[in-house]
Amino acid sequence: MSREEEQQKRALRAELRERRQLLSPAQREAAAAGLTAQLDALVAAHEAISVSCYLSSTTEPGTWEFVQRAVERGIRVLLPITRADGLLDWAVADDSGDVAEGLFGLPEPTGEVLGPIAVNDVDLMIIPAAAVDLTGTRLGWGRGYFDKTIGSMEGCPPVYAVVYDSEVLDSLPREVHDQPVNGVVTPTRTIRISPAQA
């Protein structure tokens, strides 16, 4: 990717981060409720009994209620734990509500740590994003954790990125290492992206 494209990605991330910080508590709460309903429906549609998700930060679309409800329904939910080497460990979500601050100040689970390959057994992956376009290109926050994870999986399950409605864009710059997603989930809709495009 050229220096100009990299600067465009940096500028876009900064703009998206700023927009997220301007959302009111009521807007965040409404978005979390909508997202929970969309994710519940997605899990049901895939008949998933094991999923990976993440604990959202205060500015991200809220995933906490979805995780809690999934655990209550007996779905095995793996949550990521960041490592200094750029890989993700995983822990099984439980109903304790115990969390710790991860490597980048984000909330992470405190349960038994499973290695990077633990995620190979999930039926569905739900991952964070800054933005997603309609071809399945995902713009992350620039650390590459999920691209590395998805790229290393032999039988990768469907991968859905979570964003706010305004973060579904027509197109995004794509680098060689960027892993496409199969769909995007927002507080109001779930968009499945054709495998031919992804």
TrEMBL record:
Catalytic activity: (6S)-5-formyl-5,6,7,8-tetrahydrofolate + ATP = (6R)-5,10-methenyltetrahydrofolate + ADP + phosphate
Top-level lineage group: Bacteria
EC number: 6.3.3.2
Species: Microbacterium istanbulense
Signal peptide: none
Keywords for this protein: ATP-binding, Ligase, Magnesium, Metal-binding, Nucleotide-binding
Any Pfam family matching the protein: 5-FTHF_cyc-lig
Protein name in UniProt: 5-formyltetrahydrofolate cyclo-ligase
NCBIfam families with a match to the protein in the record: MTHFS_bact
Needed co-factor(s): Mg(2+)
Single GO molecular function: 5-formyltetrahydrofolate cyclo-ligase activity
InterPro entries: FTHF_cligase (IPR002698), FTHF_cligase-like_sf (IPR024185), NagB/RpiA_transferase-like (IPR037171)
Statement: the UniProt record of this protein carries the keyword Nucleotide-binding: yes
Family statement: Belongs to the 5-formyltetrahydrofolate cyclo-ligase family.
